[in-house]
Amino acid sequence: TAKDIDKLGVGFDDDELKSIGVSGLSIIPRLREQSKNSDAALMQLEEKLKKIPALGMITFNDQTLPGAHNLPLLSEKLTAVGVPVGMFEFYNQNGLNSIARLLNKNVVRIHSISETEMLKYDEDKALDRYMLAVTERNIRAIYVHFFGLEESGTALVRALAFTEELRAAIEEEGLIVGGPQQLPGLPSSRAVFGVIGLGVVGG
Questions:
Q1: In sequence order, which residues have a C-beta less than 8 Å from that of residue 156 and are 6 or more positions away?
Q2: Looking at the whole model, is its pTM more than 0.70?
Q3: Which listed residue, 51, 88, 99, 191, has the most CB atoms within 10 A of its CB?
Q4: SS percent in the chain: helix, strand, coil, step 5
Q5: Rounded distance, CA 11 to CA 8, Å?
């Protein structure tokens, strides 16, 4: 069916992943729910994720996690990979709270503005919203949807300019921009925040 086709994973392009890793960027895949979840697929997950260079965090794309039928096995494989799992603020994903407990809360809270909401925002309003999330709600990663992507000639320059503006605003608050990570017990003024671009690899 069309629904099954939409959930059909095609994997990752190894050459593209290597290029991203060599560039110094972290890779944060968004794993999709599969049309047919199975323990066999979960058994392969650890190996596939460990092959991703510069893996910084794992996130999930859909409301139901891949492997939601067997959360203990999913958590076992995620633990073996050894990177945090991302939890999107205001987006309920079935099974993620249980996974967080099974992973001993090795979870990074992420804030994002949905594509629908983006229609109501410009750069200034988006910046204000991201900063509110970072400074008042202990958000440790920001998933950024960029503006002006339909204009191919200026999209990259505009995206980089907004990213730099966001970085500067975060650092002005005395915070450190870096890789997303769980930092229990660390004062918020020394917390590390990651800025995640729209170009994050999904699979």
A1: none
A2: yes
A3: 99
A4: 40, 15, 45
A5: 9
